[in-house]
Amino acid sequence: MTTDRMSPAPHYWYSAETDRARAIEVLEHLRAYGAADSAMQRRSEKAMRMNENDISALRYLLRAREHGTTVGPRELAEYLGIQSSSITVLLDRLEKAGHIRRVPSPFDRRALIIEPTVPTDELQRAVLGDVREELVEVASNLSPEEAETVVDFIDRLRDAVDRIDTTGAEGTAGPQGKATAKAQSH
């Protein structure tokens, strides 16, 4: 049987096996970077007296503000993967520390919007808002084309991870990252 579609001819250095090995090597290096980033994060959490969920929540809120979107407690709880009672405790803690404020929603008087306060301490800016200068120095050595490739790759990888996380422990990702019936039935 013939087809009109031509597939690229394999080169001596090209095969599905070498593609997989290269992909695994990239993912292993990303995992090692993630471990180093997590260690830096733990040091920052200790210095700021905040836990991982606190910092993740503040980062999410700061990104939302940068994009001009608002976030309510339910959305933040879903993003962090915690229950409503836990989000209340987290928000109480962040508000008491002066990191957020709760304001009435202009769209629904019963709803609240969570707003991050502007980080003022240099360490908070480095961890939450701005990027560490040491990391900027490394990334600035990329050409514009390399930077675009890296950003595109990481965005696609993050999207794939987000789809996996939303399926639950027992389900698998279906089309467009939607959970299969097995995961949805729980």
Question: Layout of SSEs?
Answer:
Blueprint: H1 16-48, H2 52-66, H3 73-80, H4 84-96, E1 100-104, E2 112-116, H5 122-129, H6 133-139, H7 144-165, H8 181-184
What's a quick, concise take on this entry?
The protein is mainly alpha-helical and 186 residues long.
Features:
two-stranded antiparallel sheet, mainly alpha, single chain, 8 helices, 2 strands, disordered C terminus, 5% strand, 186 residues
Query: What count of helical segments does DSSP give?
Result: 8
Oligomer: single chain
Number of strands: 2
Q: What about the largest sheet?
A: 2 strands, antiparallel
> What is the overall pLDDT average?
78
The portion of residues assigned to helices is 55-70%
Order of helices and strands: HHHHEEHHHH
Distance between the termini: 45 Å
Gyration radius from CA atoms, angstroms = 21 Å
Low-confidence stretches: 169-186
Strand content: 5-15%
| Strand arrangement in the largest pleated sheet | 1-2
Give the class from helix and strand content and strand pairing.
mainly alpha
- The backbone outline, from C-alpha atoms, is elongated
